[in-house]
Structures
1.
Amino acid sequence: MLDIAFDQVIVRKNTSCLKWDLVGERFGDKELLPMWVADMDFPSPPEVTEALEARIKHPVFGYTSPSKELYNSITLWMEKRHNWKIDTSWITFSAGVVSALAASIQALTEPGDGVLVQSPVYAPFYNMVIKNDRTLVNNELILENGRYVIDFEDFEEKLKSGVKLFLFCSPHNPGGRVWTKDELKTIGELCRRYNVVIISDEIHSDLALSPNRHTPLASISPEIADITITAMAPSKTFNIAGLQASVVISENKELLQKFNDVHDRRGFDGLNIFALTAMEAAYTSGSYWLDSILAYIKDNAEYAMSYISRELPGLSCMMPQASFLLWINCSSLGMTDKELNERLTKKGKLALDPGTKFGPGGEGFVRMNIGCPREILEDGLHRLKTALT
């Protein structure tokens, strides 16, 4: 049953909102319905808002450090939500997962070193490798029975080639895969065999849709934990990306120290007051809100899948196992990616992320953000139909 609270449409225009206010700049038409960038159109948990309001009432905003309560809220969250027992000494912070990827690349590789990714994948994976003058190595995922699987034969060959670092997306963006424990074990064991450190981007970990359960890669075994840095964040989970706060976790003290050394060289001095406040409130009191929003997102996903199957049988899409992103395969229409984008924007008045943004294997796909009230989702699906029929 839908939670009526999430049906409310909140106007986000004129708030310097990337998703709504920059759609004209990004897509050439400010009147498009934006269902592209991955933040939700739902209000954040009231406990987060209340904690921020309470902090604002104190008139001094001086230098602030993470509290003991914040560290405890993170460890308790990981244990309760992911069955992962971590120690507070394993935790550090970053302004975001993307900046954590960049810091990890700088800390653990040298210019020219090979860094492995698995396409199609979130675009900053490529950008952070290339912009830091490392060599991009790709292990393209295989589309099999409507979902992505890993080509482990090619994966091992790429590891053998001498790559130093593997950027892993778990759960997968844009395909929404929640990797199985067997897949995670194989990944970890192969990387350990070839002395490759893993940076596991698990920003969508809290958004696994029932009955799927996310397993942190580092929780598989102590041996895999020893070669892994995990990046998580409350940003996608609680829709607070604008506060710029992420958690970086590693049991390996040497890896964590190298990561922190890069932050020191950059002059990064920790998260701001409001990021710390929101993170603690979210991890302390956000479970009930998250459970409700996950039920709503799952209903949205099932509604969208049913609509596309019924009204646009030429398309196919993956039922996401995690997150609020729908990966839609339009390749059977026989359009080029340019033609597809023009149909969506000019005829459908709809802004979706083009599949090519996610690298090799993304051709012919688009990504739709369904983290929105049902009214907006229905409008977006009708526009998709208008564009492609």
2.
Amino acid sequence: MQVNNEGEHLAAKALGDYLIQNNGRVVTAESCTGGLIGGALTSVAGSSKWFDRGWITYTNTAKHEQLGVSKETLREFGAVSEPVARQMAVGALAMASEATLALSVTGIAGPGGGTPDKPVGLVWFGLARRTEDDVVVSSIHQVFPGNRQAVREATVNFALMHALQWIDQRI
């Protein structure tokens, strides 16, 4: 798998530059990407200044134990859902006291596992940002075409670009 294409590297560097300028640190909580987002971020020289840590929480048990995702939410909505992506991001931010931004992904990379309601290629993204008074959370989903490798690569690219847009626009 191509972990660090040119677009990922540029987005990761731009995110790092933003975090340095704003005294920020990022954490990741990944399921379907298995650490590829953290890998893309840490491929940037000097990323230890702005990348704190990452979690690979592939199972529901890991999502619950490591990030505090509610068992009830997992039962009701399933691992690939907006509420789980949001709870993963909030949980990662809560577990890393120096982090200001958390990025989470949960999806169905394929080739199997899809359903009519949740097709292969469906990925939910969660973002959580610590402010002086609160935590702001956002989520979005995408359905990416292609095989497992293509879905995972598209997920990494989208996650990095979306995080940049979100922090830049403060949405």
